[in-house]
Amino acid sequence: MESLSNRKKVLEQKPMTFGEKIYLPSIAKGLAITFKHIFKKRETIFYPEQERPVSENWRGLHSLKRDEQGRERCTACGLCALACPAEAITMTAAERKKGEEGLYREEKYAAVYEINMLRCIFCGLCEEACPKEAIYLDGPFLEADYLRKDFIFGKDKLVEEPLKS
Amino acid sequence: MELAFVIEKVVLVTVIFLITLGIAAYSTLAERKIAGFIQGRVGPHRAGPSGMFQPLADGGKMFFKEEIIPAESNPWLFIAGPCLALLTASIGSAVIPWGQDLVIGDRVIQLQVADINVGILYIFGIVSLGVYGIMIGGWASNNKYSLMGAIRAASQNISYEIAMGLSLIALLMVTQTLSLRGIAEQQAGFWQNGWFSWNVFCQPLGFLIFLVCSFAECNRTPFDLPESENELVAGYHTEYSGFKLGAFLFSEYINMFVASAVMSTLYFGGYNFPFMNHLGLSDNVVTILGVVFLFAKIFFFIFFFMWIRWTIPRFRYDQLMNLGWKVLIPLSIANIVLTGIWITVKDLM
Ligand code: SF4
Ligand code: SF4
């Protein structure tokens, strides 16, 4: 049949010549190649000391944002949890009390907000779902840890540092 | 037997044993470094300056790992396997001449543990014993993968020993002696009577066969079928853990060291180096330089073992057997015939 893509290649299987059969020339060739590689540049990145440069839209760990006045933006609407394909996000909502206007922007806020980093696939759908621009995946790499429970990040790890004034 | 002689030998044995262990330990590091370099990585580099203490860390790890003896195995044989492997690996170096005689005062110290006149046969015996450790260990594990690894080790070693022995016969026809010291002495200097004095130059084919066979005898890639990770789950040492596993791995590196030493002695002039008798140095200095040169040759061969390992993929089992029986054995027989003709012609002239 005619090839549509024009990329078809017919392979021939010729019997090996004597030079190929005694292997030694090809072994010598292989040895020369590997020997050259000994002096090539190493690709290793010494991770904890050095970090690989990442692209601009790279998705790292989540952070819960604050607005210009330092108030938490999240209103515990749960849209991120709903959007999450990995079921990684859980939260408990609470009502803002009098006197807490400086802490939370909306009347309802997330008293508990947890992301299970072992479930998260860093797809960024939570970021897209959020109507309040409260969550962004702009953090660093997820670091290794010993216990599973330590991979459930609460608000202490997620919320941005308060504004310095 | 005088006391000084005993002390001399004990010191020599201890030193050689420690050097062997040290080289084997650092071979594990070298192997990983070379693997890294060839693959564009840096290899282990966290333990100490550029990974210098990695072997110690590995050894410590091996010691503190849990020792598991499978319930259905034969515990005595299970323990005997790695012990035998380690033992046979480390006694091989006894007949290797490490250098010429050292003269201190009026004492002549031979840098060789035992100058027996059948040195080659001794090495050969040790090499064939070496497979028992693997066989016993693999069989005693009571695991089908281990058993297959053990069977492969046994058949591979037996097949390649024949070719190895035949290639040696050709060498012995040239050297006319079985003593390793005698063979080393014959290769003095680098150039003698209009031809290179090292045996590799009058036995190139024999050396090639010997080299291939020593890869097979040491179970190194491309002939590491007894422990092929991806088909036999590490083969004969699947069930081993902790220090017993360490003993198996360690014996492989010691074997490599001894094989390199034997190859350097038999074919590459041992402790001899070019112009050794024309530099006008005192005998002791020449002896010490000779030891250094011998170790340089040994290190080159160890590097060569590793270089090959990270270049060539493993043979298939039938290819291994074909190569052993249908190529190497006929070739080595042809080599014997050619050597015989050559010697006769040379004598007639
Ligand atoms: S990045 Fe994706 S997986 Fe992770 S929490 Fe957000 S929506 Fe869920
Ligand atoms: S982070 Fe955004 S989407 Fe998620 S609960 Fe808060 S406001 Fe809603």
TrEMBL record, chain A:
Q: What does the entry list as the binding residues for [4Fe-4S] cluster 2?
A: 84, 120, 123, 126
Which positions does UniProt annotate for [4Fe-4S] cluster 1 binding? 74, 77, 80, 130
GO MF annotation terms: 4 iron, 4 sulfur cluster binding; iron ion binding; NADH dehydrogenase (quinone) (non-electrogenic) activity; quinone binding
UniProt-listed InterPro entries: 4Fe4S_Fe-S-bd, 4Fe4S_Fe_S_CS, NADH_quinone_OxRdtase_chainI
Keywords in UniProt for this one? 4Fe-4S, Cell membrane, Iron, Iron-sulfur, Membrane, Metal-binding, NAD, Quinone, Repeat, Translocase, Ubiquinone
What topology does the record note for this protein and the membrane? Answer: Peripheral membrane protein
What GO biological process terms does the UniProt entry carry, in alphabetical order? aerobic respiration
Q: Catalyzes what?
A: a quinone + NADH + 5 H(+)(in) = a quinol + NAD(+) + 4 H(+)(out)
Its required cofactor(s), as named, are:
[4Fe-4S] cluster
Q: Which domain of life is it from?
A: Bacteria
Q: How is the cofactor bound?
A: Binds 2 [4Fe-4S] clusters per subunit.
Q: Where in the cell is it found?
A: Cell membrane
What EC numbers are recorded for this enzyme? 7.1.1.-
- Pfam families in the record, alphabetically? Fer4_7
For this UniProt entry, what's an example GO CC term?
plasma membrane
Residue limits of the 4Fe-4S ferredoxin-type domain?
65-94, 111-140
Query: Hey, which family's this protein in?
Result: Belongs to the complex I 23 kDa subunit family.
Q: What does this protein do?
A: NDH-1 shuttles electrons from NADH, via FMN and iron-sulfur (Fe-S) centers, to quinones in the respiratory chain. The immediate electron acceptor for the enzyme in this species is believed to be ubiquinone. Couples the redox reaction to proton translocation (for every two electrons transferred, four hydrogen ions are translocated across the cytoplasmic membrane), and thus conserves the redox energy in a proton gradient.
Assembly state and interactors? NDH-1 is composed of 14 different subunits. Subunits NuoA, H, J, K, L, M, N constitute the membrane sector of the complex.
Q: What is this protein called?
A: NADH-quinone oxidoreductase subunit I
Q: What is the lineage of its organism?
A: Bacteria, Pseudomonadati, Bacteroidota, Sphingobacteriia, Sphingobacteriales
From TrEMBL, chain B:
Subcellular compartments = Cell membrane; Membrane
Please give a single GO biological process term from the UniProt record.
Answer: aerobic respiration
* Catalysed transformations (reactions): a quinone + NADH + 5 H(+)(in) = a quinol + NAD(+) + 4 H(+)(out)
Keyword annotations for this protein, in alphabetical order, are: Cell membrane, Membrane, NAD, Quinone, Translocase, Transmembrane, Transmembrane helix, Ubiquinone
Parts of the chain that traverse the membrane: 6-29, 76-99, 119-141, 162-184, 196-216, 253-273, 285-307, 327-345
Topology relative to the lipid bilayer, per the entry, is: Multi-pass membrane protein
Supply one GO molecular-function term: NADH dehydrogenase activity
Question: What is the superkingdom listed in this entry's lineage?
Answer: Bacteria
* Chief place where the protein resides: membrane
**GO cellular component labels:** plasma membrane
Coiled-coil annotated spans: none
Quaternary structure, per UniProt, is:
NDH-1 is composed of 14 different subunits. Subunits NuoA, H, J, K, L, M, N constitute the membrane sector of the complex.
Annotated HAMAP family: NDH1_NuoH
As for what it does, the entry says: NDH-1 shuttles electrons from NADH, via FMN and iron-sulfur (Fe-S) centers, to quinones in the respiratory chain. The immediate electron acceptor for the enzyme in this species is believed to be ubiquinone. Couples the redox reaction to proton translocation (for every two electrons transferred, four hydrogen ions are translocated across the cytoplasmic membrane), and thus conserves the redox energy in a proton gradient. This subunit may bind ubiquinone.
Entry's family note: Belongs to the complex I subunit 1 family.
Q: What protein am I looking at?
A: NADH-quinone oxidoreductase subunit H
Q: What are the top taxonomic ranks of the organism?
A: Bacteria, Pseudomonadati, Bacteroidota, Sphingobacteriia, Sphingobacteriales
